[in-house]
Each structure stands twice: as C-alpha cells, then as structure tokens.
C-alpha cells in the first residue's frame, strides 16, 4: 500500500508541472475580445470585396492582405499581453518542446486526425460511398486570393497556434479546468471563423455551400479538435510546436484525399467518442480546478 502511494506521487507531481505557470496568464476576456474583433473587422471587409463584380488584381491583393492580417492579428494581441505580464521567458521555453516532453505525443499529433478520417472513410464504403475516397486529391478544394491553397494550409496552423498556445489557452486555463477551457475555446473559435464563411473561395465558404448539415458539422468538429489538441499540448509540457503539428496534420489530412463531405460527419462522431474516452481516462488533467493544482 505504501509502495503504491509512493509510486503514484511522482506522476501526480509531473502532471502538476505540466500546468506550471498557467496562473500567470490573467487576461482571457481582453485577449479574446481583441483577438476576435480585429480579425472580424478585417475579414468582413474582405468578404464584402470578394462579392464585388469583376474584382481587379488590386482588389484581390487587398483581400489577400486582409486575410493574412486577420490571421496574424491574434499574435500581435498575444505579444502585447505576454510582454505586459512579463511572460516572455515562459513562452520562449515552450515554443518548441520543453525538456522531458513525452515521445508519444509526436506520432499522436501527426496521426490522430488523419487516422480518424481514414477510419471514417472505411465506414462509409459498405454504405455505397465510392472507394475512390482513399485516392489522393490532385489539387485543393479552395483558393485564398493570390495565395496558393497549400500556403494557407501551412500558414493558418502556425499563425493561429502561436497566438492561442502562447497566451489564449492558458489564459482560460488560469480561470477554469482544462475541459471547460477546451469547450469554451471551441465555441469562441467557431465564432472566430464565422467571417471566413462569407469570403468567396475560402474553405469555410465552400463548406457553407455544401449545406446546413456540413456547416453545422464544421462547427461541431472544432470541439473534439480542441479537446484532443489541448490534451497533447498539456501532456507535452505546454509545447506550442505540438499544437502546430497537430493542426497542420489535420489541415493537410483533410485536403489530401478525395473525401466525401458526409465522411467528415462520421469523422466528427469518431472524434467526439475519442474525446470522451480521453477526458475520462485523463480526468486528472481535464477536471482538476485551478485552485487545486499543485
């Protein structure tokens, strides 16, 4: 009995260290108001321009610039709060992977979302969907102004996660447990993406054109996405790079194959089930209130 207590204590201490310094991130409301309002203003302007008849190259260039500025705006907000609160050293220490980061998080970050998509694809085949869904796509399903789609797929995860994981996620986790942090951020992130659904040619606009079910699925899918990403993020000692890798793998995995839109609905169901399992099995991480962390 004594041996068991002693053997579990180091693990609990290690888990506590994975949330070390989170309490220093103190301004979630101000951060998210600014990190959402500025992109909204830029992106709704880009959306208005995208529906102008026969837009010139100059107009398309302005749209592209507005899109990039909206993506980068949360980083500017994060940097301001990081410098104001003296968090630079903590952020720099975890941009890549803090010492002691567990090796299993890297293959998990790469494989979880694409793996769920392939399983969902296999489930659809007996129901009459085309086996060609397993074939690689020649090109992409969307375009973003003057930028090739692959650059958008690359830039978005980097720019977003540098903002969310250097400041935004921990700012919420300083006030609530990791589960509520994930759920609340998931809702905010859905709202943050709303203007992108109005920019002609954008991925989100293409999803809206697929219909109500697929639009709802896109929003719902962000909830398990965030839960699983935050699980890896905290289990990797708050590594920003792990979150970027996870987001990159999801973006390119979803564009790599000739996936039917219905398959992505099944993928979301699979990820929701996996999220429930992860939260239950790692409830010490997800359910510990901020005031009870060591």
Mean pLDDT: 91
- Percentage of residues assigned to helices: over 70%
- Main sheet makeup: none
Query: Structural class, judged by helices and strands?
Result: mainly alpha
Radius of gyration: 20 Å
Tally the helices: what do you get? 12
**End-to-end C-alpha gap:** 23 Å
Number of domains: 1
Chart the SSEs and their pairings.
Layout: H1 2-17, H2 28-50, H3 57-84, H4 88-93, H5 105-124, H6 149-173, H7 178-193, H8 203-210, H9 212-235, H10 240-256, H11 261-281, H12 283-287
Explained architecture:
It is built from twelve helices and no strands. The model is unreliable at 1-10 (pLDDT under 50). With 294 residues, the protein is mostly helical. The chain is globular, with a radius of gyration of 20 Å. It starts with a helix and ends in a 7-residue tail after the last helix. It has one domain (13-292).
Please give a handful of descriptors for the protein shown.
mainly alpha, disordered N terminus, 12 helices, 294 residues
Short description:
It is built from twelve helices and no strands.
